[in-house]
Amino acid sequence: VHGGTFVVMPEFVHTKIENQIAYVTIKREPVNLMSYPVWDEMLKTLKECESNRGVRAIIFTSGLDRLVFSAGNDITELASTRTNKENYTRFWKTQNEFLSKLYVSRLVTATAIRGQCPAAGCMLALVCDIRVISSEGDPKMGLNEVAIGITPPKWWGRVMINVIGQANAERFLMGAVMANTQHALQVGLVDAVVETKDLLSETTARVQTLLKCPDLGRYQTKLELRRELSNQWWAEIDAEIDSAWRLLSVPQVAQQLEGVLARLSGGKPDKKAKL
Q: What are phi and psi of 111, to 5 degrees?
């Protein structure tokens, strides 16, 4: 901690600590695509925060001016035409180590969501204890992998089931549903919908409410509820990578991902894409 700010010297992830809460801002222009460097910085930041006994909570926010929390994973990290299995393995392990650790973190965890929140952005929110979204710009939120012809990761689906229930999760996952704020609130995908001006204060207030409980009891309860899933998630990571890479290498899937890249870059499929 240095002058109230915890510095990892990152490029995309910046952290400020106030009143035992770490405010983690993600800023990778233009739409916070989650590449390997972003997930690597997120993982390092989480480990630093958890090792700092002066930090009891963490809140994730977007530092973008545009209305995007995160546009999801960078498809060039997934498309077999743009990467190889070694790099994909590094990317997927880093991402899912972060997510599975955050799911059982000793910290109170929260996301303050401003703007669109598909796929990996939604998953970041799902593994947190608290999710608050602003209504500005009519944002949508969900795990929409099926929309481009690939399968939502198994353990991402299991976490969604834990958050919104089996029936709702099946509808969301199989239909690539992107819920608006009221739908998200109705099914429990988010805990509150607020105006943008109140987003950070409302998220902070909800975090502070949880912090009124003694840390040990709260953390042990979280572990009892989530540890088995988190452990299974990480234990199966190598098998998941092998299975996913086989799917991503299927010519039809590779062609679909190239098509997404082309559409999102206006016919020039060398730019970054989202999932």
A: -125, 135
CB 269 within 8 A of CB 90: no
CB-based burial label for 268 (10 Å; 0-12, 13-18, 19+): exposed
Residue located via tokens 């209305």: 67
**Tokens found for residue 181:** 């704020």
Question: What's the pLDDT tens digit per position in 147-179?
Answer: 988 999 999 999 999 999 999 999 999 999 999
The two beta strands, 192-194 and 130-134, are parallel
| 19-54: pLDDT as tens digits | 999 999 999 999 999 999 999 999 999 999 999 999
Q: Does the pTM exceed 0.85?
A: yes
Estimate the crossing angle of helix 85-103 against helix 154-164, to 10 degrees: 20
Q: Nearest 10 degrees: CA dihedral of 103, 107, 112, 118?
A: -10
- Phi and psi at 59, nearest 5°, equal -125, 125
